[in-house]
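User: I'm curious whether this sequence folds into something compact or stays loose and floppy. Could you predict its structure so I can see for myself?
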Amino acid sequence: MTAGGFSRATAEKIIAAYRRKYPEKPVTAESLVPVDEVNFVPPRRYSDDFAHHTNFFNAVRSRQPVVEDAEFGLRAAGPALLANMSYYEGRIKHWDPVTMRVVEA
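Assistant: Here's the prediction. I'll summarize afterward.
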C-alpha cells in the first residue's frame, strides 16, 4: 500500500485505518488454499469451436450482428498475435492501439 502523496501524519492515519480493516496475516501454505472451488462442467458434447462457428454462420445468414464486432476481435487478438510474432522472431514488436497496426521501430 502506498500513501506517499500525503503528509507523513496523514499517511500514518491512512495506513493505520487500512491495517485495522485488513490486519496483516503471515503468508503460509494453508492461507493460499482457496476457500471455495467452483467447477464448471459444460453440457455433454459441448464444443467451444462448434458454438463459435454456429454463432458466426447464423449471424451471416440472418445479417444480424454478432455479440462482438470485428474491431473487438482485432483489439483482443492483435496484441496476442503480436506477442507470438515477437517470441518467434526473437525481437521486440510494437503495437499502436489507436491505429491497430504493428509499429516498426
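Summary: Strands lie at 94-96, 101-103. The CA atoms of residues 33 and 39 lie 16 Å apart.
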